[in-house]
Amino acid sequence: MEILSRFLLLLLLSSSLVFAATPSIVSPDESDDLLIRQVVSDGDDLLLNDEHHFSSFKKRFGKSYANPEDHAYRFGVFKANLRRAKLHQNRDPSAVHGVTQFSDLTPAEFRRTHLGLRPLRLPVDAHKAPILPTNDLPADFDWRDQGAVTAVKNQGSCGSCWSFSTTGALEGANFLATGNLVSLSEQQLVDCDHECDPEEQGSCDSGCSGGLMTSAFEYTLKAGGLQREEDYPYTGTDRGACKFDKTKIAASVANFSVVSLDEDQIAANLVKNGPLAVGINAAFMQTYIGGVSCPYICSKRLDHGVLLVGYGSEGYSRIRLKDKPYWIIKNSWGASWGEKGYYKICRGRNICGVDSMVSTAAAIHITSQ
């Protein structure tokens, strides 16, 4: 009898765990409501139709279209992206997915106008960062708390993510070298940097058509440094001539290197050397609203340059029924995207290729004249 009681108790506990770990089954209408709750304000009527949600989207993000045909086309794209966001939610349950400012763009348009990392691998002759000790790493770390990270910027409709990743890393390195946080010019890189990887045909940095952070570090090293943002402001286009003024250099690169794929080494380099330039696959970022993104399946084909500023472990994991460790990523799509411009992606399995292309820079400050 005692054995039977123990068996029944074990069965009950097992059933409870399975129930807790398995998403509840809902009808299509209820599922739609769950999505709508994520993408509209609490005051909106959840029963209103797609046209209402499209209208709310246009108002929220200041969208307008040239003619009725374009409006109808964008409405169709918007509805497709609602379905895509719901699919992402199912595949990435520890994050929140829904409507973002990119919900009227097709995936191809999104890649062309808001990504821009190329080529897809690091140069073969890239200098490797030395192996660092990892036994005393803090459990949580965030360079924002140390004052080493500038405000979130916005690349606009220009594939210049690589330049923002580069300046972010150099801004942090310059802060460590000087104690001063200076916002550096992405537009200088967009206009003036045409550095190429000789081992990879067609891999030159090319303004709004893409680039690579290590190539941008190489350009910065050769040019002598970068100007301040305020002296060479961002325009979001690559049609202008290079206006680099060497007398106004604000920070320069002493050296740069790529970091091992080992996540402990990435964390150690982050803590010691400041924010790191990182490549990532951004497929799940188009619909991301918040939480820790840890999709079951995500391509490791890198197409977006971002900045790694910290790590933590507060994100709830439905799969493991415990906290999920994550990286803290600074993006360049403005503060209205994601978690005030930031993205959390889980650590431990190179999700979306986040550990595949990591580089660090050291800086020597040059006083502006």
Automatic annotation (TrEMBL):
<dbReference type="InterPro" id="IPR038765">
    <property type="entry name" value="Papain-like_cys_pep_sf"/>
</dbReference>
<dbReference type="InterPro" id="IPR025661">
    <property type="entry name" value="Pept_asp_AS"/>
</dbReference>
<dbReference type="Pfam" id="PF08246">
    <property type="entry name" value="Inhibitor_I29"/>
</dbReference>
<dbReference type="GO" id="GO:0008234">
    <property type="term" value="F:cysteine-type peptidase activity"/>
</dbReference>
<keyword id="KW-0645">Protease</keyword>
<keyword id="KW-0378">Hydrolase</keyword>
<comment type="similarity">
    <text>Belongs to the peptidase C1 family.</text>
</comment>
<feature type="signal peptide">
    <location>
        <begin position="1"/>
        <end position="20"/>
    </location>
</feature>
<keyword id="KW-0325">Glycoprotein</keyword>
<dbReference type="InterPro" id="IPR039417">
    <property type="entry name" value="Peptidase_C1A_papain-like"/>
</dbReference>
<feature type="domain" description="Peptidase C1A papain C-terminal">
    <location>
        <begin position="137"/>
        <end position="362"/>
    </location>
</feature>
<keyword id="KW-0865">Zymogen</keyword>
<dbReference type="InterPro" id="IPR000169">
    <property type="entry name" value="Pept_cys_AS"/>
</dbReference>
<keyword id="KW-0732">Signal</keyword>
<dbReference type="InterPro" id="IPR013128">
    <property type="entry name" value="Peptidase_C1A"/>
</dbReference>
<dbReference type="Pfam" id="PF00112">
    <property type="entry name" value="Peptidase_C1"/>
</dbReference>
<keyword id="KW-0788">Thiol protease</keyword>
<protein>
    <submittedName>
        <fullName>Uncharacterized protein</fullName>
    </submittedName>
</protein>
<dbReference type="InterPro" id="IPR013201">
    <property type="entry name" value="Prot_inhib_I29"/>
</dbReference>
<dbReference type="InterPro" id="IPR025660">
    <property type="entry name" value="Pept_his_AS"/>
</dbReference>
<feature type="domain" description="Cathepsin propeptide inhibitor">
    <location>
        <begin position="54"/>
        <end position="110"/>
    </location>
</feature>
<dbReference type="GO" id="GO:0000323">
    <property type="term" value="C:lytic vacuole"/>
</dbReference>
<keyword id="KW-1015">Disulfide bond</keyword>
<dbReference type="InterPro" id="IPR000668">
    <property type="entry name" value="Peptidase_C1A_C"/>
</dbReference>
<dbReference type="GO" id="GO:0006508">
    <property type="term" value="P:proteolysis"/>
</dbReference>
